[in-house]
Amino acid sequence: MASRGINRTELGDGTAHESFLRYRRYRWFKIATFLSLFLIVVYLFVDVSPRHNGGSWLGYTLGTIGALLIVWLALLGIRKRAMTRGRWSLKAWTSAHVYLGLALIVIGTLHTGFQFGWNVHTLAWVLMLLVILSGIYGISVYALLPQGLSDSRSEMTGPQMIEAVNSLDKQIQQAAQPLSDEDSAIVLGSLGEDPFGGGVWRRLSGSYPRCGNMAALRIMRERQEQSSGKEEQALEQVVGLLEKKAAALQRLRGYIRRRALLEVWLFVHIPTTFVLLAALTAHIVSVFFYWG
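Structure (tokenized):
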């Protein structure tokens, strides 16, 4: 499991430059590791007849620990709204969320006794793994992408980058007027297109093979090689502007791609967490119904 909107420079707790992963010298990593190793040792040395399973006393104990952890960790979304200093600052909560979430892999799997089937119990375990894996992805992108996101902006905000593209469109429209009707139609046809067109996949991949600006730039470069005189000068100006727009679009799309990579995991992590809570409830209710 992982958090959203991680603040790397949380102030007020004396650890302004300490990341949530290294919080208090890896305090929660050590706690989660100790807990996991302790439970593994217990699992190996406790004799459960005829074999380990979720219905044994150890299975119920592990299941209770796992269920309480899942509910507690799911509260991070609420906890984020109340940033405080001290022991339970947002950074501390996030660190605990990450490492105890990873410990759930051990706790949940030991709870099953490695007995799986086509039932709500295994479904809850699978959903738990999906939530954790999506959280691992979230942690990875938050650790690797923010610097690239900042670099891609070139000290410009998103609206400013869009405005730069629109401004170039106006300049290209004026520069294309001396061109022939055919060339002018090609250039003007590339203007005003949605720089993010192509859907979610295009935003995530950063690939826009049908970009009108690139198509117009390629054709105008070919025309430029075959032209002379005033036409050559007009084409040179248009090509220069199309190249500037291509750079502006690359910067804007790179920024959007990094933003999408930072956020897309939430479309899996958060909904799957709610589904997991529902499956966990069904799992617990069915267990007590069978027990009764």
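Residues 80 and 273 are 16 Å apart (CA to CA). The first helix runs from residue 23 to 45.
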